[in-house]
């Protein structure tokens, strides 16, 4: 059986780490029907559109994508293609597993999964300027939109994920002490869903600022964490910092009809083409994709090979304190899989 996958290499270092990841995934012996498409700056350069119709049509057909990092202009230019994909395909759950690998990061006992609501909150992009006197941009306003349906959908996903993956606890992260409506609704819904899983999955809740401190002090206390869009964006990068950085941080964007797996770090144009980028995050995203395809054993082989390459073989790219090139790292992972 061949798995149809839309492949979006991305910008900057994207094509390099995508090629390395393809090599690793194909080393599992599974068959893939790759449909390579463009997005981001690569798509603008080629078609004038950061998200061409051909890319969207491909994902509609395959319902599955592996995506390298995309460049989003800061302050001006086109809006995030990542956000556009989430909205187009209602990819409401952003899943970020974070696990310690010996020899990378400051902690050895991190094993948490952050589940982030992906299409509501402040990131809906409802914002505008208000004119005061002669200044048309004197005040900027942004609106957070949170729905009960959206809260229940993401929190239920977190509890079902915990149960499916034999996790023990879900922590709801909020700011209901101050944001009594948008965060209060999230907490209220969390408590309601948690009651359905009582006796099977433990539940607690933490205010966002306390949660950030607790993650740094004792990350081992966390199992599955679920929160709103912006809080999740921030905490997921904090979690990556605990284990050695974004080079080891995969992500999955899951919806009812499609899923996009990605390296969550940037496109790093300063090192593009130099062959030194760490491909581990996209490889780990590829392993998540294999889980999604019910190829869990193959996903475990990929994860184990990456950990073994870093821990036992000590083949590490320079962001992890080593000297290995992108290709050398990929070849070492392939050897372990084979």
Secondary-structure topology with pairs:
Layout: E1 2-8, H1 14-27, E2 31-36, H2 41-47, H3 53-62, E3 64-67, H4 81-88, E4 93-99, E5 111-117, E6 121-132, E7 135-145, H5 148-164, E8 169-174, H6 182-196, E9 202-207, H7 208-217, E10 224-227, H8 229-242, E11 250-254, E12 259-263, H9 280-292, H10 296-311, H11 326-337
Parallel strand pairs: 1-2, 1-3, 3-12, 5-10, 8-9, 8-10
Antiparallel strand pairs: 4-5, 4-11, 6-7, 11-12
What does this structure look like?
- This protein is an alpha/beta fold.
- It has two domains: 1-96 and 248-338, Isopropylmalate Dehydrogenase (3-Layer(aba) Sandwich), CATH 3.40.718.10; 106-242, Isopropylmalate Dehydrogenase.
- Helix content is 40%, strand content 24%.
- It is built from eleven helices and twelve strands.
- It has helices spanning 14-27, 41-47, 53-62, 81-88, 148-164, 182-196, 208-217, 229-242, 280-292, 296-311, 326-337, and strands at 2-8, 31-36, 64-67, 93-99, 111-117, 121-132, 135-145, 169-174, 202-207, 224-227, 250-254, 259-263.
- The strands form two sheets. The protein has a ten-stranded mixed β-sheet, with helices on both faces. The chain has a two-stranded antiparallel ribbon with strand order 6-7.
- Helix 1 packs across helix 9 (280-292) and helix 7 (208-217) packs parallel to helix 8 (229-242).
- The longest helix is centred in the middle third of the chain and has 17 residues, at 148-164.
- The chain is globular, with a radius of gyration of 20 Å.
- The two termini are 20 Å apart.
- The mean pLDDT is 94.
């Amino acid at each position: 059986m061949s798995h149809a996958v839309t492949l979006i290499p991305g910008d900057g270092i994207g094509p390099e780490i995508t090629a390395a990841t393809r090599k690793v995934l194909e080393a599992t012996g599974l068959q893939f029907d790759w449909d390579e498409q463009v997005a981001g700056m690569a798509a603008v350069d080629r078609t004038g559109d950061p998200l061409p119709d051909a890319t969207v049509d491909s994902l509609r057909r395959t319902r599955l994508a592996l995506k390298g990092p995309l460049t989003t202009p800061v302050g001006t230019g086109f809006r995030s293609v990542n956000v556009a994909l989430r909205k187009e395909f209602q990819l409401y759950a952003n899943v970020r597993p974070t696990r310690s690998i010996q020899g990378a990061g400051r902690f050895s006992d991190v094993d948490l999964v952050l589940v982030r609501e992906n299409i509501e909150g402040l990131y809906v992009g409802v914002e505008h300027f208000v004119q005061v006197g002669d200044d048309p941009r004197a005040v900027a306003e942004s609106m957070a939109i949170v729905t009960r349906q959206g809260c229940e959908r993401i929190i239920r996903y977190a509890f079902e994920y915990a149960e499916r993956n034999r996790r023990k606890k879900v922590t709801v992260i909020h700011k209901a002490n101050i944001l009594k409506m948008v965060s209060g609704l999230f907490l209220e819904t969390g408590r309601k869903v948690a009651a359905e899983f009582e006796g099977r999955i433990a539940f607690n809740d933490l205010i966002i600022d306390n949660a950030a401190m607790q993650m740094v002090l004792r990350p081992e206390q966390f199992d599955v964490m679920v929160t709103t869009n912006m809080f999740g964006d921030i905490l997921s990068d904090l979690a990556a910092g605990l284990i050695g950085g974004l080079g080891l941080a995969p992500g999955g964007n899951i919806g009812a009809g499609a899923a996009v797996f990605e390296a969550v770090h940037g496109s790093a144009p300063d090192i593009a083409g130099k062959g030194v980028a760490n491909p581990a995050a996209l490889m780990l995203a590829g392993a998540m994709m294999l889980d999604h395809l019910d190829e869990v054993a193959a996903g475990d082989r990929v994860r184990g090979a990456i950990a073994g390459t870093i821990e036992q073989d000590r083949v590490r790219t320079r962001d992890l304190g080593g000297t290995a090139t992108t290709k050398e790292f990929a070849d070492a992972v392939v050897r372990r899989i084979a």
